[in-house]
Model the fold of this input.
Amino acid sequence: MRETAKYTDEELIALFQKGDERAYLELVRRYKDRLVNFVFRFVSSREMAEDIVQDTFLKLYTSSHMYKEIARFSTWIYTIAGNLAKTELRKRKRRKIYSIHDMGIDDKEFEIPSDTYNPERESRSAYQEKEIQIAISRLPEQFKTAIILRDIQELSYEEISKIVGVPAGTVKSRINRGRQKLQEILKELKSK
Amino acid sequence: MDCYSFSNLLTDYLDNQLKLPVRREAEAHLRECPVCRRKVEEMSALVDTLHNLPKVSASDSFDAILTDKIRHYQENLQHPRNLWAFFSTHSRTFSAAAALILVMAGTLIIWRGYNPRLESLSPVMNSAPVLSSMGSANTTPSPQQNTVPSNGYIPSSMALKDSSDKKNLDNGDSLGPKDFRNQIQLVNDRR
Done:
């Protein structure tokens, strides 16, 4: 067992702030998959998701002093990754007149990583993964963030509230409206 | 409980966030209302699908690329390879410095433009070079400024700087006896 594995996230970041690079590596090991999954659902591209998460960890490396113990480490790192993902989406929107919001089911650009495809699960599920991914991408940004953090990353209302910086009641309302909107979009996609 | 109240509690109901008495009320409503039951079924299917979406994980090359990015950052910090890399690494610092300089320059311009005390001081400041070029007794003139060439030519640096000074000279109001004597001496020297 790795020596660093016994520490909490907050203890690890404290160790890294004192210069222990093993603590940094442990934090990367713990969070890289979670963050890649989170950002991938945001930007719909694995390559871009990995790039953003690497930039998140680079920020952790260069700005670890910015972390204060008042917040949980997970909240802090999710906030950085979320902000980078939003910035990237806005940049992409500006660059492309044809945005991912306009894509349909048959668009090949909408990437579903091959290692996640499971025909058996797809047949059991009410919706195809690609449909879900397109529907998520069409959600307004604040609903998208709430839905991904709650229904995909399975974070608590309180944690989402701290990441997004709004009261828990607002988070709940965004989740409620986000799910309804998602359902409408999925019905629309099915009817086409 | 009616349908409207239930729809407001739908998220809490699905996420098991309702307190027991409210949950019982919601369940009682569901037993009676097929429309809300259908809503719960559909929403529940959607939430399940979202929960069970395959997890996308980092690729094998993730760590190596991250290590490269960190190394690249450190190299840039130690030896900026080119000016652009240096500027982009410190873009925030440079932007803040440029903004600060602009604000300070703007404030200074506005302040000098509208501050009456400075305006009253400015003629004195502006006249200083004129006085020195005229060889005022209070200043130490440079040899070039003080020298009147033997051919009587008056260099432009010794000429009056602007029309207002010329006017004052014409009127003779602002010239003291000493200045007047200097002028006569100047004419005599030319002869």
Remarks:
- The first helix of chain B runs from residue 3 to 14.
- Residues 117-190 of chain B form one domain.
- Chain B touches chain A at residues 8, 10-12, 15, 17, 42-43, 45-59, 62-63, 65-66, 69-70, 73 (CB under 8 Å).
